[in-house]
Amino acid sequence: MQTVLYDYWRSSASYRVRIALGLAGLDWRAVSVDLLTGENRGADNLARNPQGLVPTLEIDGLRLTQSLAIIEYLDETRGLGLLPADAAGKARVRALAYAIAMEIHPVCNLSVARHAVQASGGAITMESWMARFIGPGLAAFDQMLDSPATGRFCHGDRPTLADLCLVPQMYNAARWGIDTAGLTRIGAIMAAMNDIPAVQAAHPDHFKPES
Ligand SMILES: N[C@@H](CCC(=O)N[C@@H](CS)C(=O)NCC(=O)O)C(=O)O
Known about the structure:
The protein is an alpha+beta fold. The protein folds into two domains: 86 residues, Glutaredoxin; 111 residues, Glutathione S-transferase Yfyf (Class Pi), Chain A, domain 2, CATH 1.20.1050.10. Helices cover 53% and strands 9% of the residues. The longest helix is centred in the middle third of the chain and has 21 residues. The protein starts with a strand and ends in a 10-residue tail after the last helix. The protein binds glutathione. Glutathione binds next to helix 1, helix 3 and helix 5. The site of glutathione (GSH) has 15 residues, from helix 1, helix 3 and helix 5.
């Protein structure tokens, strides 16, 4: 059975998984779940992802949710080397990945941001909400990279889980007009990531549904 990723082109969590699928060299196809029309909260998506989110990956007879869990599954079953072997290295890579996936990303989810805008009665805009969390979050991430353990990538000289979280978050920052020019450590790592064919192939522009 072919591997299927239920995703949305601009979804950061989906984008992370697309990079991992590319690094694994798997034959897979994407099925779009439209977050703007609320398709994610429809019966079909809820049956595969009870949280009403994307991504969901169908692979090896399994249905997997939660992007980091999916990536760790691919890492373990396809030997991607996305987590260092040593405990200290693993803890550092996970801390970097979680700084994005568990701190910046959840508060900037569309449903959360839209709720904040509505509840504020107009005092908060989508742009001001995103700027409030993405800019400082990425600045802290850049500081976390100020370590001898940082190499060409977030940890050493090969991509890890942390880099797979960073690329989509930077795409999202650009989407919301956040100025990241001063984040030089992140900038250098982004240049290295953008050289990798699997990263290029995972870019949202390749997954935008035709209107
Ligand atoms: N922790 C989850 C987050 C998934 C998530 O938040 N997905 C977003 C798109 S990036 C979504 O489906 N949002 C729907 C909504 O906000 O209604 C994961 O990593 O898979």
